[in-house]
Amino acid sequence: MSKSDSGSNPEYVNARVRARRAKLYDDEDYRKLVRMGTSEIARYMEESEYETEMNALGARYSGVDLIEYALNRNLAKHFEDILDWSGGQLYDQLAAYLRKFDAWNLKTILRGVYAGSEREEIEADLIRAGEFDDAFLGRLLELQDIEGIVELCSGTIFGPGLDDALEQYQETQALVPLENAVDRAFYEHLLDEVGTVTDVDSPAALYLEFLQAEIDFRNVRNALRLSRSGADIDPTEYFIEGGRLFDADELSQLVTNTDELVARIRDSAYGDDLSAALNELEEAESLIGFENALDAALTEYADHFSNSFPISVTPVLAYIIAKERETDNIRAIARGKEAGLTEEEIEAELVTI
User: CA 85, CA 62: separation in Å to the nearest integer?
Assistant: First the structure.
């Protein structure tokens, strides 16, 4: 019997996830890490739940490289565990959602090849938590040109979109069309698998509402990046269908006026959840503070959702997002230390709630 044929078991999985959630780093941990050097950060991680990965990789890597590889391996392990625990519809939902790391890895490889990075540099940023196995990722890493990567992905869910975007990439030599094609394919495939939901109180309906919120938050981020950049780019190129906040035409109109866009978001169903992020945007001189606040808002929204519907997929999705935030924060601290940033500069890069 396959995993998806067995019964859905959210109570069991959520109990296991709560135990994992309790081990995540908190703000006090981050304050300690910001005051440390990279070797001290590595030792701190060895004494926490990263011990297995740090010990396994310590003979091959050191410094920031060791921290990077340990973070990514630990992240993948946790998400593999979740799939191992899950059955039935819950397994199907989580397996589909974790394809976000296939999208992450594909975009990472595209960017690395585009920038002429060494294979080892690209590989350090891969998170092996999706459906792409090591053999397929290895074949992608061997390729030295964008066209070859697109061709190799022809049999995946990303193939059709990448094929369509390749001509625009070749004309402009900009990665934006390809990256957007990857994101769109991921979310479109997710929504297709959910299908039409008629019971608004069903697990499928909760899952769909969560995905729509994530799409909306991503569209907000992309729209405001365009609004602040002043670049001559069609906003609809960034738009991902499937959210509830606004459509592509409305986004195109709002993107030229940040004040109107912020007002539109404040008046939406997400206004309360995004209030802090929107305040941060209005006060920030750059998008960094806003984007971090937006990530925090999505984390908080996910937590609210999981607390409201504890016997569903949402607590697991909230944990996945929180675990990603932890990984991003530790990575930002380690990279900031390596780059010689001040404690204040590093703290500005962190996502906390």
Answer: 33
